[in-house]
Amino acid sequence: MRAACALLVVALTTFLARNTLLDVFDPVRLGRSDADDAIRSALVAIAISAAAVFVVWTIVAVVDGRLELSARALRLANTAGLVVVAVGLVVGVLALALRSRPRAVPRQLG
């Protein structure tokens, strides 16, 4: 469960910074003059993301060290986590399958 929480925090932070991180691609690939600004923005986003993950995990560590759950509560939490992961996996597979489905190309008459 702790590993899943770690991945969730990092994934959420990456998701929130995705536009800034991906905005580097075209300026650098095409050699545009705004490539330096795009790289600088991405580095700032990485730094802010790392700081946010550090703060969140510091809070989690403090709470986790003081929290004591019963065996039943742990089983429920693990089951709920497994269900969330399974649903996420199914949704992800369906999304990829629908997105990569071949599309019909309209024919031009004439």
Task: Please tell me about this protein's structure.
It is flat and about 70 Å long. It has 4 helices and no strands. The chain has 110 residues and is mainly α. 1% of the residues are buried.
Number of helices: 4
Q: Give the mean pLDDT.
A: 85
Helix fraction, binned, reads over 70%
Distance between the termini: 61 Å
Number of strands: 0
Please tell me what the overall shape is.
Answer: flat
- Could you describe the largest sheet, including whether it forms a barrel? none
| SSE string, helices as H and strands as E | HHHH
Which residues sit in consecutive blocks of at least 5 with pLDDT less than 50?
none
Q: Indicate the proportion of strand residues.
A: under 5%
Number of domains: 2
Secondary structure class reads: mainly alpha
Rg, rounded, reads 21 Å
Summarize the entry for a quick read.
With 110 residues, the protein is mostly helical. The chain is 79% helix and 0% strand.
Keywords:
110 residues; mainly alpha; 0% strand; flat
Please render the helix and strand layout as text.
Blueprint: H1 2-22, H2 25-29, H3 35-66, H4 71-99
Helix pairs in contact: 1-3
